[in-house]
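Researcher: Re-running this chain for the archive, since the previous output was lost when a drive failed. Same request as before.
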Amino acid sequence: MRKVTRRAAAVGCGIVIAAAAATAAGGTDVKVDVKPLHEGRINPMLFGSFVELLDDLVHGMWAEMLNDRGFDGVIPQAKWCYYDGRPNFCDREWEKDASWTYDTDKPFNGERSAKLTCGAAGRAMLAQGGTAVVKGATYVFSGHFRGDNPGLKARVALRALLPDGAWMELASAELAAFSSEWKKYTATLTSSGTTDRAVFALEALGGGSLWADRLSLMPADNRKGWRDDVVQAITEMRPGVVRWGGSTCDPGAYRWKEAIGERDRRRPFPNRVWGRIDSNDVGVDEFCQFCEMVKAQPLFCISFSDGPQSAADLIEYCNGPAGTEWGAKRVANGRPEPYGVKYWQVGNELGNEIYVKGCPAFCEAMKRADPKAALLASFPSQALLEKCGKDFAYIGPHHYTPDLAECESDFVKLTQMVKTIPGCAHIRISVTEWNITAGWWGIMRGKMLTLESALQNARYLNLIMRYSNIADIACRSNMTNSMCSGVIETGSSGLLKRPSYYALRLYAEHAKPIPIHVEGAPEGVDIIACVSDDRAAVCVFAVNMKDAPVAISLSLTGTTPPCRPQAAYVLCDRLDRRQPDVQNHWTAPDRVGIFPLKPQGNTVELPAFSATAIECGAR
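Model: Regenerated structure tokens:
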């Protein structure tokens, strides 16, 4: 192929990648016929995501700025799961100081609180660093306190250490009138400066002791407790569905009833699978509210070990009217209207004999709580479907491999299974977790941060759209952080979109509902096309895994009126270095992204290592 010169020009805040005109012979002819590929439709829930209670995934999305706010301690990740050992939010500890200790005498919640003793100095200090503040921004503090001296006073402050070793105070507020009984205090702090090395400090002044528990510091612009930048980024990614649960449910024995009601009264719990102590600040209501804000369907993974009645109670809590037992509890917790959750998975990564025997009781109890509930099985098997397939709307395999042939073989096998087992023809596929790996622990985890990984994700989306006659739901694992598997990474001072974020966003933004026929894809290029219901708009998705550009010439037939390429959007390396392992970094956050690409007539040049959405409309 002849060498093609490309130019990049700034347009707004993006890049226009304009291909030089190509001759008809220079582009491989790709035929697109709007004849449907099959009877299925591309469901927006194929571009879903997954929130699992592991490490700093939820903590990285939640707006809380203080770790270990209940003084339960800090424990590391489980030894078996790691990337490079860098510390994150969950590693932050309260700074050691002789003026305070952990105390087990009558804590407000949990096993212990912090006891600040002023002593002869008449002063005690409790501090935690590692956070970030912005000049002019307001932060909301709250905490529960009791004291043994009515004259005791306290103040909370945000501080920054200057290069000369002096401290600069950015904001402060006074607290007073403590009694021997626990009482909640609140204050607002408006920062006079910007720093990513802020220290939160609680100072007790006077004589005697002050006990503190369940301290909290949040930016005032939080969205029902969630970080505003996270809500905005995920809304723009357009996940049709978000799954909640995973290994913390099974085998981790997560209990949803301990994660509702007033957050300060919830008991933190040790995560049996992933390590850490989970604050339990984010539970059923918070997750449902997050899904509402990002306009996604919630999908709950039920803990199988918690039993059928608990599963039914959860459905009633989410969907029941105020007159029901658990619906009334939801109302009492501040949510009058039902959440209307439709999708419920029975257990996580289960499929043994115990699971098969136990599923009928779950199906009966959950359908009794909500006859319209769509139930998802965990790992499917013939024995499971023969026993209670009539009660399941979906089967839930997991695909953790870059081998698309293996994934396709699974789709074929499962399609045949539901067709041949009596009473199961209605069952659809929901891939409730997928990615190129669920392991690769150690430095290999970093592959999921790369452009190549994003393109492999794009190819998986091409595959599952081809099987949209049987597949309705797919949840890429994971949403945030997760030792490199998250589509976004968060830190105290901002949010970083990984290349895989843009792959999900590209497809969710441009997919049309009907998959159609494509012929003639060149070697190394994976192509699928889809059309709108009125046959007036076509989108062609093309993933070029080669280290060189590939020109394709589209020939579209069957559209009304006739269509041709009108615009294109490409996920690629903006510097075109043709390196598959290129990533976005905090110092170069837009190295990989989605950029406009200008077609030349019917010809589109696909950049090296890229995924392109080509929008076709009337001439």
